[in-house]
Amino acid sequence: MLSSTRLDGIALVVGGASGIGQQAVYSLAEAGAEVIVLADLNEEGAIATAEESKQYASNKNYRTATFKVDVTDAEQVHGMVDFVVREFGRLDYCVNSAGVDNGIHAPVADTDIDNFNKVQDVNSKGLMLCVRAEAAAMRKQEPRTFRGRSGERDIGRGAIVNMASANSFAGLPGKMSYTVSKHAALALTKMAGMDHASEGIRCNAVCPTWVQTPLLDIEFQKNPQSYAEMSAVVPIKRAAKCEEVSDAIAFLCSPAASYINGTSLVIDCAVTTTIRLH
Length: 278
Ligand SMILES: NC(=O)c1ccc[n+]([C@@H]2O[C@H](COP(=O)([O-])OP(=O)(O)OC[C@H]3O[C@@H](n4cnc5c(N)ncnc54)[C@H](O)[C@@H]3O)[C@@H](O)[C@H]2O)c1
What we know:
Blueprint: E1 10-14, H1 19-31, E2 35-40, H2 43-53, E3 63-68, H3 74-88, E4 93-96, H4 113-138, E5 144-148, E6 151-156, E7 158-163, H5 176-196, E8 201-208, H6 214-222, H7 224-233, H8 242-253, E9 264-267
Parallel strand pairs: 1-2, 1-4, 2-3, 4-7, 7-8, 8-9
Antiparallel strand pairs: 5-6
Nicotinamide-adenine-dinucleotide binds at residues 15, 17-21, 40-42, 45, 69-72, 97-100, 122, 126, 163, 165, 208, 210-211, 213, 215-216.
């Protein structure tokens, strides 16, 4: 492992109870985070994940805490960030992975407004509330430095990584509500990276296509057509493993990424680079 990809600070993983967020907890633990706070609506899942993460942790002082949060509620989100800073003194890395899918696929003309509102509420407004509270806490703390081969450099006050999607760049038929929310997630990432760069806060996004979460496995079993669609489009004919996304998240949090800000890493095996003819 490059020394610049090692972590040693305090992490908050929002949506850490399952899926990509859960794997982000494991990747951050493996990379050396000292503390991980797992925040989620699903408190039981967060507690189980926190326990499980101990087997991957490489920091001898590793510890975890959980916090029940609904990211659509500004007060709860503020309370979550407050909790981390109060209990652990600072907030070095934030991973924002709470999100919901589109639900029933429908063309734009048949959009269900309640569903549209729910998806935006969690994926765009909820994400914005998280980034807002996290950046507000980070800007108050002292910046840190890292000693690399070329000497010491400023690595800023903190790093935020948002879960966006390949749908931040392209659409899938029937997934307008989700696609709109993920375009918003990328816009928010650019704005936060831009607005807070001079304060030493980095904000980036990861943008995967299909990721093999337990939910996706169920979807593939229930609907073989959706598996066929994925393998028709993905050149290597498989979904990404969760850790192929979460290890990239850990990298974006690390000193190795100290000059990467306001941008996104597309993790899609080249799906979005071209129109596939076969
Ligand atoms: N799985 C994929 O193929 C894929 C691809 C691209 C992007 N993403 C994005 O990655 C993120 C994680 O997705 P996942 O597949 O791991 O899903 P998941 O359902 O396994 O995890 C999402 C987590 O967010 C939590 N959550 C949902 N609403 C919440 C709320 N209001 N407040 C707090 N927590 C809430 C859930 O309890 C859950 O633990 C999402 O933003 C999703 O859009 C997923």
